[in-house]
Amino acid sequence: MRHLAALLLAAILIGGCSTSPVSEVTASGTPAAQATVVPSTAAETPTAATPTPTSGASGEPSAPPVATPTPSPANAAPPKPADVTWTLVEQIPVKATGRTLERNRITWSSPDGVATGFIAYGVTSCLRNAKQFDNKPCVVKGMRIPKDQLVKLGTADGRARTMDISWELNEIGPGPYAAVLLRAVNAVGNSIFTIAWSENVCWKCVY
Fold it and tell me: Which of 39, 42, 127, 129 has the highest CB neighbour number within 10 Å of its CB?
């Protein structure tokens, strides 16, 4: 009887220690003893940096900028002579004719290496010989000069910046030219005229 009572007591004690079964399953459905964490290989492999080429709108690499060529002065007609002066140098009596030889000097400025020569022209008549222009220059800036009114008086090479012009004067009256014009020239063309000197209009003067 004592032995049977001891067995019954042991059964009661075991049943009172646990009211529910013990689980071995995790929330994920994987046995806890078998759960493993696999590291990400992508995170461990560094990605090499690749330089990005400079590209234009088409996606192709841009070409280096090309410098625009500057036109050479030798490819254009020269500018007109600047800073022109007209100076009386001397007057020499010519006994044989009773006239006076007058020598005048033109000076000017011009860019080096552009003009190959300079030409001086005399204008044979006063182109503004009218009452409203009395005592005003015979030739002014902007006038059209007829070719048949021009006489070549002298030339100089492209390095020159001075030229002497001479003519004979009568005892009374004007000289043979109403004005003197100067222009620069090269193989491409001619500059416009610069007025070196002009006589004044003398309306209805009689000599």
Answer: 127
